[in-house]
Protein 1
Amino acid sequence: MQNPFRVGSTFTLSVPPCVMIIFGSTGDLTKRKLMPALYNIAVDGLLPANFSLVAFGRRTWNHDILRNEVSNSVREFSRRQPIDENILSEFVSHSYYCQGEFDNLDSYERLRELLDSIDRQTGHAVNRIFYLATLPEHFEMIINNLGAVGLSEKAQDPRRESRIIIEKPFGHDLVSARELNRNMLKVLDEQQIYRIDHYLGKETVQNLLVFRFANGIFEPIWNHKYIDHVEISVCESLGLGSRAAYFDKSGIVRDIIQNHLLQLLCLVALEPPVTFAANAVRDEKVKVLRSLRKIDAENISSSVIRGQYTKGYVAGEEVVGYLNEEKIDSRSRTETYAAMEVFIDNWRWAGVPFYLRAGKRLAKRITEITISFRQVPHKLFATEDVREVRPNTLSFQIQPDEGISLSINSKPPGSRVRVQPVKMDFSYGTSFGTEAPEAYERLILDCMRGDATLFTRNDEIEEAWDFIDSIVNCWAQNPEISLCNYEAGSWGPTEGEDLLKKRIGYGWRRL
Ligand code: BG6
């Protein structure tokens, strides 16, 4: 299987025939992300010939109602407008609804009959991709029932493999993640499981690997000798939306840091993989996660800050505090913000602090990674005109405006020698003149092609939980550890700023 990381842009993807079966087909994810992604894959001419979509759900819908829903989702949420009516109607005409209950084997028998009839129409066996966009409590039951009716084949027919795409949250802690992995592996092989972390499908995230390993000039300085510290921020201005009940049980550390943020950290920190095959890349990510220094009761207060928002203003609108949100217990101690200083105890990163932060209801939505390089060894320009020489920084902006920016020091024109930082910017929009595809487009296509490079493997998930458990267990055992308040619409509690200041002399990079 060829991986597009390894080939030039002239490569045309070959996508074997498949049918995609979505569980949780009436939910928000399906409507906002999955349907538009499939349509956009079709617009790019990459949807395999005879592709069919099957939605499995509890509602008493029929094919026509589903087709209407698919069409409405695409019209409302596709990144590409206006809609190409021919492509949409072709896509919609191959959509089928299967009404059933997750816990009822007869429903799965009916699903199998429908899938067999699609095979007959196509004239041969095709891959089957089961997308579990349901609440996590249904994952095991669905997988077991697929197995029970013979829908979990492991490539017995060379033209057919069953694959499962599974959404987060993957477990709630190490114990539950291990159990889920163990149970899934009773029915499926690891190669059939595609655990999605949609951050890995974002263009700039993928570009991190290309940037590091396709440019000769950065990798030699990508280590503790030249890098002073790294900041990774996943900031959101949004609150909880309809997910308050889930979030209150989870908190930001489990919701964002365990998965998206640690994945970003892995891509910044991993060693060059032997190849760009899925397991080679994932082996290196696992090594990073294993090298993370655990947080314990001794150091948690100096290394991790947790916060919860109070009322404030976001984009000019007044918003309530967390404790006044609907469905939130007014005594909740769930963190909506966390900032932490972590260390990767290995040869390359010895002593380099990585600062991670994530938060809801912050000043704006922005995800950025910034590498701060060490200062020059000798202050040559220490004159009264030069108050400060800022270290060079390299920033990867993941969203909203995808791009990379290098700050270098330069002399402004004039007779005096002064030093001022300037930026060299690369932005996707202007350099490639094309809009980056949505993360889900890339990931669905990769799964159709059997390429799991951008999906997380069972041991990655478990290592990530092992680290996260060290934090959340400390909080659970030491409830007196402070939960700092911050005003909605701010950049988080001042204690979060102090975390950096005490070591590097200034707070988070202004975003
Ligand atoms: C999800 C989290 O995984 O990612 C949400 O559960 C969060 O809480 C979302 O809002 C952020 O995704 P994005 O792509 O909008 O940054």
Protein 2
Amino acid sequence: MREHVLLIGGGGREHAIARALAESEAEVYACAGNRNPGIAGLASEFETLETTNPDAVVDFAERVEATIAVVGPEAPLAAGVSDALEHAGIYAFGPNQAEARIETDKAFQRRFMRDNHIAGCPDFETFDDPEAACAYIDEYDGDLAIKPAGLTGGKGVKVIGDQVTPEEGKAYIRESDHDRLVLEERLIGEEFTVQAFVANGDVRTAPAIQDHKRAYEGDEGPNTGGMGSYSAASTALPFMTDADYVAAVEIIEATVDALEDYKGILYGQFMLTAEGPKVIEFNARFGDPEAMNTLPVLETPLLDVLTAARNRDPLPDPVFADQATVCKYAVPEGYPTDPVAGARVAVDEESAGDALLYYASVDEREDGIYTTTSRSFAVVGVADTIDDAETIAEDALAVAGDEGLHMRHDIGTATLVQRRIDHMKKLRGDE
Ligand code: AMP
Ligand code: GLY
């Protein structure tokens, strides 16, 4: 019998997962809160449901006789969807609620690293009293990152000395209703992501990627879910050494060893500092946009990884094409602070040319596809060099036009990549 893979989530990341699964013999059944036209086109059935409602997901999974499930976003993991599926006898590639705390509870995550002596943990303290946190800011010798302990869609962190002054940081703590906070040493360097397939103690890592969190070109403006990302035709990025990549992989392996029986994707977000990689955070799922860099170059069938995980077989050693990728998101104008929905999306899979097109939070209506208040769609160029991949992505954006949309044209450009290289050189005192 063909595998019936249940895919949970309706963003660009899940469109990339759906496409990777559709390339093998799997039958894909998808559910999400929004009807993603890209996923719907690939799935045997698409159900709109509340993905944080474990009963609703299990009902759909049972109806379509799912033999395996992939949980795309973090919110269903936090809601215990993996636990509920397993309880119903359906293998879920995604951690249970308790192990997903590595992402969903930043205070747990930092204590976990400290207690298990995992390398790359910044100096930190956790707080449940806002005034104690403010006093710590006054006392601390240096800049701090202020992090709500719970999920904030990547938008809750404020870094003193970068986005805010100490006074603004304290005002943020007092005004926001986050009841638990982590304050940690501000890390300086270049960010990168390494994602790993994990099951039964096996860890299989993918090439490094650099995401761009800031809304505007030149890394200005508020943090977003991620505006775009690139990877090189090698495991490391141009501003890192192979040893930096290996150090990051070792941190991920040590983390998996310390977790009980983690399964799914473990995503490490690192700051490459002058002293090597430090952990900014872990996520319990593929990154979005990073899944759109990783999956198009994954030559090993994704289905083989999932079935090996379920069958408790060794995970296959994934093969990645030696190609660079550049992913650029188009988001609604005003995103993330004041997004304006309702612009018509004027690009489709054909008109995107050589680029891959992934739909995210769009709304499919009778007369077309429209933007909502979240990220709309992404285009991905795949080529021998970052430069060529960037050109492919830009050509597709030109077709899309920019009416009602905003994008960062600088992601993946030679100028921006060179700036990263120069920044690391300077930090490491190579100049
Ligand atoms: P997070 O939600 O943990 O991914 O954080 C969002 C963004 O805040 C990261 O992508 C970093 O740019 C920044 N950030 C988080 N923690 C730190 C830190 N300790 N030092 C400097 N920047 C940080
Ligand atoms: N790209 C960052 C994230 O998925 O959290």
